[in-house]
Amino acid sequence: MSSARDVMKRMKELQERREAAFAPLASVMEQRESVRGEIARLLKEQEQRLAELDGPYRSAFSGALTGGWSAEELTALGAEEPARRGRPKASRNRPKKASSTLPGDGPTGPATAEIPAQADAEDSEAKVEPETVSA
């Protein structure tokens, strides 16, 4: 039978071998992360360069239209119509109206909510129930 000291020594040897086997993987993982960072930086730079060409492209496309070309002819030749610039339509930027949280609100009209003080006052008055129409 092995002593506890021998078992611990063997366990440490096994762990050292496992760590040594992982070291190359850790190194490649670090290199890959570095390359991903470089790709992101280059992509951002190239997108900026492309954005800087939007104005001249828009002008050149407009010049071709003024020179007698139609947008369809230009796109058939491989030119893309320039992206729209300026402010988007107001309807896209307008915040949506706050919708009511009352059940029953909708095309037929707003639902009525009973306020406790009103309920007490109404209890003492005669109530008239609306007629129900069957379809």
Structure, explained:
The protein starts with a helix and ends in a 12-residue tail after the last helix. The chain has 5 helices and no strands. The radius of gyration is 37 Å and the shape is elongated. Among the domains are: 1-45; 53-83. The longest helix has 49 residues, at 4-52. It has helices at 4-52, 54-66, 71-76, 90-93, 116-123. The protein is mainly alpha-helical and 135 residues long.
Name the descriptors:
mainly alpha, 5 helices, 0% strand
Give the secondary structure arrangement, pairings included.
Elements: H1 4-52, H2 54-66, H3 71-76, H4 90-93, H5 116-123
Shape: elongated
Whole-number average pLDDT? 81
- First-to-last CA distance: 91 Å
Strand count, sense and closure of the main sheet?
none
Radius of gyration: 37 Å
Instruction: Please write the string of helix (H) and strand (E) elements.
Output: HHHHH
Beta fraction: under 5%
Helical residue percent? 55-70%
Query: How many DSSP E strands?
Result: 0
Low-confidence stretches: none
Total helical segments:
5
Query: What structural class results from the helix and strand content?
Result: mainly alpha
In a few lines, what is going on in this structure?
The protein has 135 residues and is mainly α.
